[in-house]
Amino acid sequence: MSSGIETFYDVMRRHGISRRSFMAFCGLTTAAMGLGPTFVPRIARAMETKPRIPVIWLHGLECTCCTESFIRSAHPLVKDVVLSMISLDYDDTIMAAAGHQAEEILDEIRETHKGNYILAVEGNPPLRDGGVYCLPGGRPFVDRLKEMASDAQAVIAWGSCASWGCVQAAKPNPTQATPVHEVVTDKPVIKVPGCPPIAEVMTAVVTYILTFERLPELDRHGRPKMFYSQRIHDKCYRRPHFDAGQFVEEWDDEGARKGYCLYKVGCKGPTTYNACSTVRWNEGVSFPIQSGHGCIGCSEKDFWDMGPFYSRLSSVQPFPIEGNADAIGGTVAAVAGGAVVAHAAASAVKHAADKRDIKNERQARADQNTNG
Amino acid sequence: MTPPPPGSEVHAADVTAGDASTSIERTSILVYEGPVRAWHWITALAITTLAVTGYLIANPLPSVTGEASDWYVMGNIRFIHFAAGYVLAIGWLVRIYWAFVGNHHSRQLFKFPFWKKEYWDGVAWEASWYFFYRRWPKKYVGHNPLAQFVMFFVFTLGMFFMIITGFALYAEGTGLDSWQYALFGWVFDIFPNSQAVHTWHHLGMWVFVCYIIIHIYAAVREDIMSRQSMISTMISGERMFKDNRDD
């Protein structure tokens, strides 16, 4: 306070969070980010001394499930603290202001914190027909997004919509819904995919950026490695059943009751990078596989076009519904096998005919010689 | 002095006059050097293993009962698949090396004479032989033009595709810090996601199944009907011509 700059800690205290709660938050966040206990005082110190960085939360073409997830962050403390860190001046879903008053706030923050705010984007801009399929505040969302991104420090793409396009980008993508990183190309974009992403993952990503003032380490697709470097399958508690060869074959069979692996009924855990099997959902209560339903791969790009959800093999476009790799490959192999058999039969007939002809020709020549 | 009995120039211990009257002189050329032949059969075994285990990975066997700790069915199938994959990949690397140091036939797999008209004429001619338009095929020391087409576009490119996508999928298990991921992680920049790579890798398996059907059929058929040896060539390395006629 003495320096006149408002720090994270100042903001938290202003929001009525006690010193004790603040330290508990630092401990929780450290654990969530996979850092050792020695980082707790470092995070605390950073939050006490660093000026608060505002976070603007924009909504494009989406369903708001990311926000719904975020405000249900496992520990209420985490939610309170993180929400108080974020500039709640602008978030369509939970802000107090409305109409022109709300829109003005965006411009104001862009001016006052030029190059210093984090832009969190939920949803994506549809580009077809000049972006008219998403018009918050009467303007195409794509314009607002580019404008706000131009003065941001970094952009967080919340959820599968912002990261990959999600269901509104499913074939044939009628509104040309486009992920954020394809529109914002001059700023670092950190992807936090999932439909929605896990609340703890979201709060940890924000906290990491705010406390360390840099993006967490990202993988080749721009996702934070600390949450997206392993598949759900790699840490699934049902993995031993997979390795043993124990599968749910039908939804009402003995295997389903015993909690066997859901691989055969279409679980996309083996091809999905997310932290569901470790962090879990709703205060760590459960996650889809624990509830007996396979993962649908909601944090993966194009998961919406990789169906069906209930079979191991995906349909192959543009073949019919049941056209998976085995159906197509098996058919082609059967045709090839049939063709080979037919060709072999024809070859045998031809070979025999040729042999007979050759013999006859020889005989004719021999006869000619004896006659001549 | 009595003249040598007919057929004695064959110099076989048990040759008869009847045998000798049907004997013909044959030329023989060493085509496939030892390492190429060894690679062929190792690869044949590896591909068979990979196709069977790969199919079972996508379509697992019926569930086993009892404690999970008593079984490792899927684990073993996957281990065999990965081990065979390593054999295939290392074999392929050795085979590529041999293309540099071996005879010129060892390079045929990796070359495609796209711009040579004679080559395409040869393809058309071979196709006409397969469509029964010809009584006799042409003789070739190495692959005939049609075979070269299939070898290059299906086998050689297919091998690269399967090895690269296979190691990319394997890298998912070994992790982002592994050398497999460092070398093959770029595959996931091309395909939208891991599931799509699985689908294409699986389709690739079926391409190889079709390739095997046609490859074995063509080898047997050519061995019987063509003017040169086929199957024994991949065992002895010698291409034997059944006649010395000009085309």
Automatic annotation (TrEMBL), chain A:
<feature type="binding site">
    <location>
        <position position="276"/>
    </location>
    <ligand>
        <name>[3Fe-4S] cluster</name>
    </ligand>
</feature>
<keyword id="KW-0732">Signal</keyword>
<comment type="similarity">
    <text>Belongs to the [NiFe]/[NiFeSe] hydrogenase small subunit family.</text>
</comment>
<feature type="binding site">
    <location>
        <position position="236"/>
    </location>
    <ligand>
        <name>[4Fe-4S] cluster 2</name>
    </ligand>
</feature>
<dbReference type="GO" id="GO:0033748">
    <property type="term" value="F:hydrogenase (acceptor) activity"/>
</dbReference>
<dbReference type="InterPro" id="IPR027394">
    <property type="entry name" value="Cytochrome-c3_hydrogenase_C"/>
</dbReference>
<dbReference type="GO" id="GO:0005886">
    <property type="term" value="C:plasma membrane"/>
</dbReference>
<feature type="domain" description="NADH:ubiquinone oxidoreductase-like 20kDa subunit">
    <location>
        <begin position="63"/>
        <end position="208"/>
    </location>
</feature>
<feature type="region of interest" description="Disordered">
    <location>
        <begin position="353"/>
        <end position="372"/>
    </location>
</feature>
<keyword id="KW-0472">Membrane</keyword>
<keyword id="KW-0408">Iron</keyword>
<dbReference type="InterPro" id="IPR006311">
    <property type="entry name" value="TAT_signal"/>
</dbReference>
<keyword id="KW-0003">3Fe-4S</keyword>
<dbReference type="InterPro" id="IPR006137">
    <property type="entry name" value="NADH_UbQ_OxRdtase-like_20kDa"/>
</dbReference>
<dbReference type="GO" id="GO:0051538">
    <property type="term" value="F:3 iron, 4 sulfur cluster binding"/>
</dbReference>
<keyword id="KW-0004">4Fe-4S</keyword>
<dbReference type="InterPro" id="IPR001821">
    <property type="entry name" value="NiFe_hydrogenase_ssu"/>
</dbReference>
<keyword id="KW-1003">Cell membrane</keyword>
<feature type="binding site">
    <location>
        <position position="63"/>
    </location>
    <ligand>
        <name>[4Fe-4S] cluster 1</name>
    </ligand>
</feature>
<feature type="binding site">
    <location>
        <position position="66"/>
    </location>
    <ligand>
        <name>[4Fe-4S] cluster 1</name>
    </ligand>
</feature>
<protein>
    <recommendedName>
        <fullName>hydrogenase (acceptor)</fullName>
        <ecNumber>1.12.99.6</ecNumber>
    </recommendedName>
</protein>
<feature type="binding site">
    <location>
        <position position="233"/>
    </location>
    <ligand>
        <name>[4Fe-4S] cluster 2</name>
    </ligand>
</feature>
TrEMBL record, chain B:
<dbReference type="InterPro" id="IPR051542">
    <property type="entry name" value="Hydrogenase_cytochrome"/>
</dbReference>
<protein>
    <recommendedName>
        <fullName>Probable Ni/Fe-hydrogenase B-type cytochrome subunit</fullName>
    </recommendedName>
</protein>
<keyword id="KW-0812">Transmembrane</keyword>
<keyword id="KW-0349">Heme</keyword>
<dbReference type="GO" id="GO:0009055">
    <property type="term" value="F:electron transfer activity"/>
</dbReference>
<dbReference type="Pfam" id="PF01292">
    <property type="entry name" value="Ni_hydr_CYTB"/>
</dbReference>
<keyword id="KW-0479">Metal-binding</keyword>
<keyword id="KW-1133">Transmembrane helix</keyword>
<dbReference type="GO" id="GO:0020037">
    <property type="term" value="F:heme binding"/>
</dbReference>
<dbReference type="InterPro" id="IPR000516">
    <property type="entry name" value="Ni-dep_Hydgase_cyt-B"/>
</dbReference>
<keyword id="KW-0813">Transport</keyword>
<dbReference type="GO" id="GO:0022904">
    <property type="term" value="P:respiratory electron transport chain"/>
</dbReference>
<keyword id="KW-0472">Membrane</keyword>
<feature type="transmembrane region" description="Helical">
    <location>
        <begin position="149"/>
        <end position="171"/>
    </location>
</feature>
<feature type="transmembrane region" description="Helical">
    <location>
        <begin position="203"/>
        <end position="220"/>
    </location>
</feature>
<dbReference type="GO" id="GO:0005886">
    <property type="term" value="C:plasma membrane"/>
</dbReference>
<keyword id="KW-0408">Iron</keyword>
<keyword id="KW-0249">Electron transport</keyword>
<dbReference type="InterPro" id="IPR011577">
    <property type="entry name" value="Cyt_b561_bac/Ni-Hgenase"/>
</dbReference>
<keyword id="KW-1003">Cell membrane</keyword>
<comment type="similarity">
    <text>Belongs to the HupC/HyaC/HydC family.</text>
</comment>
<dbReference type="GO" id="GO:0005506">
    <property type="term" value="F:iron ion binding"/>
</dbReference>
